[in-house]
Amino acid sequence: MANLTRRSGESRMPSHSIFSDFFSDVDRFFDKDIFNAPMRWRKQLEGTLPAVNIRDNEKDYAIEVAAPGMKKEDFNIDMDEGILTISSQKEEDKTEEKENFTRREYNYSSFSRSFSLPENVKADEIKAQYNNGVLCITVPKAETKEQPKKKINIE
């Protein structure tokens, strides 16, 4: 088309094709917030929940919760019917007053994580420590009795 010349009275050909308009409209349609909202909500939720590592050791389960900037008094750890729940609620109110202005800021954060523990744990011996921004929970395992092996005959 570069070799074609324009006759007088003819309009110029558009520099883009009808397909590029169609695909750009389709792209804009899928870029709308309605399609990205669930993914964005999930990212926001994950952003507020602390990261958790769980290790299955020989004698216990080790649960590590990354929660920097908190104090051990900020946490609640409960065990109820095989469910271990770690939660926290922290509320801060900062007020700064100077000659001609007052600044007041509120900060509220909370989270709750629950874990179903297996039956082979000693719930009464669970221990927790908070050091350097990491909450470490040790869940000791109960000794399991091995089931005796038995040969079953087929009749």
Report on the structure:
The chain has two helices and seven strands. With 155 residues, the protein is of the alpha+beta class. It folds into two domains: 18-48, no CATH class; 51-140, Immunoglobulin-like (Sandwich), CATH 2.60.40.
**For the terminal residues, how far apart are their CA atoms?**
86 Å
Strand order in the largest sheet: 1-2-7-6
Residue share in helix: 10-25%
User: In oligomeric terms, what are we looking at?
Assistant: single chain
| Uncertain regions spanning at least 5 consecutive residues | none
The CATH architecture of the largest domain would be Sandwich
Proportion of residues in β-strands: 35-45%
Question: What secondary-structure arrangement, pairings included, does this model have?
Answer:
Layout: H1 18-30, H2 33-48, E1 52-56, E2 60-66, E3 75-80, E4 83-97, E5 102-116, E6 127-131, E7 134-140
Antiparallel strand pairs: 1-2, 2-7, 3-4, 4-5, 6-7
